[in-house]
Amino acid sequence: MSQDRNSPMHGVDTVAIDWALRMADPARADWDAFTDWLEADPGHAERYDRAAMTLLDAEQALAAHPDVPVPIEPEPVRRRPLRWIGGAVAAALVGAIGVTAWQDRPQPYAIETAAGQTRRIPLSDGSVVTLAGLSRIELDHAEPRRAMLSRGEALFQVRHDARHPFAVQAGAVALVDLGTVFDVRLGQQTRVAVAEGAVMVDPKGAALRLDAGQAVTVEGDRLIRSTVQPDEVGGWREGRLAFDGAPLGMVAEDVSRFLAQPVTVAAAIATRPFRGTIDLEAVRHDPAVLGPLMDVKVRRVASGWTLEPRE
Fold it and tell me: FecR N-terminal domain spans which residues (predicted)?
C-alpha cells in the first residue's frame, strides 16, 4: 500500500527531513519558501525541529566511529538548519527511511530568469525546458515529469512517455503532454500554443485537445481556441515575437521579458489589438522602433519606456 508523501515513514517525517537537508546546503537553501512552509501550519516548526534533531543524532552516532570523520554541531539550535550534513549521514538516513522512501522524497527546486535572460533546462527524463526572461518554474528532482510555471513563459520540448505523461501547471491551468513541443505563457492572459504533437488542456475538466498549429487563451473560465503558425511557437528563442490581435498591454508585457528595462502602455491604448512580428534585437538596440510598427508614440521614462497614443 502506498503512503502519503507528507506522512511520516517508519517514524521519520520525510518532508521535514527534506527541508532540513535543503536548508543545510547553501546551494539549495530557499529562505522565503522555508519561511512560507513554517508559517503554513503551526505544526511545521515542531516537525522541522524533530527532523533537525534526527540529523543531529545521526551525525553524533556516526561520529562515534573513528573511521567515519563527521563534523558535529556543538549543540542543537531550534529552527536553524545544521551547517553541514555529510554523505555518511545521508547513508544513515537511507537506512532509517528505506531506499524507496529516500528516493521518492520531495526534492523541489525553482529556477528564475532576469529580464533579458533566457535559460535552457535539461531534465533527467530527456525533456528540455527553455525559460524566457522574467520567468520562474518550479521542478522536482524526484518527479522530473512534472513542472509548475509560476511566472513568465517557457517552451517545453517533451520526451513522450505514454505511461508517464508530462504534466504542467500554469497558474490555474493544468496541461498534460501527448508527445509535444509547446509554449506556455503566464501573465495578463494564460496562453498555450503547440508546435508539435498535442497537449490536453484541463484534463479533469474541459479536456480540450490542442494539436500542432493550435493555441488556447484562458479568459476567466473560458478556453478560447485559435490557430498559430507552428514555426512561430517559441519564436522568442530566435529573437522574434509574433502576435495576431493581442492587446498592446500583453504585447508590452511579452517584449519587456527580453529587455533590460520594461515597456508599459498607456491605459487609453492598452486593449488595442496588434498584429505583426517584433524583432527583439532591433527593439533592444532602440525601443523607438515600436512606434511606427504599432502606430504609437514611444516615450522614455525613468523606469523604461511607455507607449502612448499619437498626438
Answer: 16-52
CA distance 174 to 159: 18
Residue 4 maps to a domain: no
Asked if residue 8 is part of any domain, the answer here is no
Point out the domain boundary residue: 38, 71, 104.
104
pTM of the model: 0.66
Residue 43 vs residue 310, higher pLDDT:
310
Q: Give the dihedral of Cα atoms 20, 11, 95, 16; nearest 10 deg.
A: -10
Residue 270: other Cβ atoms inside 10 A: 16
Q: Are residues 121 and 220 in the same domain?
A: yes
Q: What is the pLDDT of residues 108-146, one digit of tens each?
A: 789 999 999 999 999 988 999 999 999 999 998 888 899
Q: Are residues 116 and 202 in the same domain?
A: yes
Q: Which residues pair with 223 in a beta bridge?
A: 218
The answer to whether residue 80 sits within a structural domain is yes
In this predicted model, what pLDDT tens digit does every residue of 156-188 receive, in sequence order? 999 988 888 999 999 889 999 988 999 999 988
Torsion of CA 254, 280, 111, 3, to 10 degrees: 50
